[in-house]
Amino acid sequence: MNKKNVFIVGFGLVIVALLAGGYFRLGQKQPGKYAGPVEKIAIGNLGEYSILNLIAKDRGYFVANGLDAEIQEYQAGPPMIADLLAGRLNFAVAGEFPGVNYIFQKDNLRILTETSKQKVVQVVARKDKGINNPGDLKGKKIGVTRKSAGEFFLGRFLTFNNLAFSDVSIIDLSPAEMTKRIADGQIDAVASYEPNPYKIAKRLGDNAVVWSAQGNQDTFALLYSTDEFIKSHPQIVERYLRSLMEAEQYVKDYDREARNIVARILHYDEPYIEYIWPKVAPHLALEQELVLTMENEAHWAIQNKLTDKTAIPNYLDYIYFDALEKARPEMITIIHK
């Protein structure tokens, strides 16, 4: 066979292979370009703990999936979940501990996916109040947002340092109020999640002492919706999750650009973005660790009389698996079937 014939045969085989590959892919379920009506959704966001919402909005992924997304920033998870349950939001990103508290009270809260996992809760205290070691917190005023991760991890931190809530004076404050009051000396310490400890420590300078409140336990940022909304709008849920997956891929492919987008939207300076970014890497998953964490926190809430309930809920009943299972089943490690 001469070179010309070899070339023709080889070229023909390549064409056949490409056509076969194309036919095979056509036989697979591929998410096509959305061509239906654009539908409005309202999203509650928690800053850097849900950067995928910000990326999806900025990069046009929501629009490409037929969603007109309005994003509202919140300082803390509890008021955001309250707005979600009141129908003012369709989706909300908040920590798992607010979810634990609300599931004790409400039956219609649902978890769709984790959006990040991190260790960002810290205790910051003023040295000029005589606080140099955790034991010095006894008898001091500590600001914390009730029913947030800060409250849970403060409780653990006190226990690990041979203290209890009864040994300190707890002041229920929003993150913004904490920053002002500790700076003014009206309270002696705070327990909160970033960026609040970072801002407070920076403001107090050498007068600040900082401890990690979490130890080895992670806290999760979770995407919540309601049972009613999911049942009446399953396609919106799927398109919303698809938008977040596209945003997650963008973060992986364009790390620097993603940092710049988040810094611009949240008005964060470069030093803080560089500090926080490795701590809040986004990931869409449902891990067995999440269920164990929520059960542990529910047990703690019952022991500390934060609820009048005495039984730990079955959290599998409050997780909507279908959307993530269709799109990314390998990211689900929760045993649920």
TrEMBL record:
Coiled coil: none annotated. The chain crosses the membrane at residues 6-24. InterPro entries: Solute-binding_3/MltF_N, SsuA/THI5. Residues 40-261 form the Solute-binding protein family 3/N-terminal domain. SUPFAM superfamilies: Periplasmic binding protein-like II. Keywords: Membrane, Transmembrane, Transmembrane helix. This is ABC transporter substrate binding protein. It holds the Pfam family NMT1. SMART domains: PBPb. It comes from the Bacteria. It comes from Candidatus Nomurabacteria bacterium GW2011_GWB1_40_7. Belongs to the bacterial solute-binding protein SsuA/TauA family.
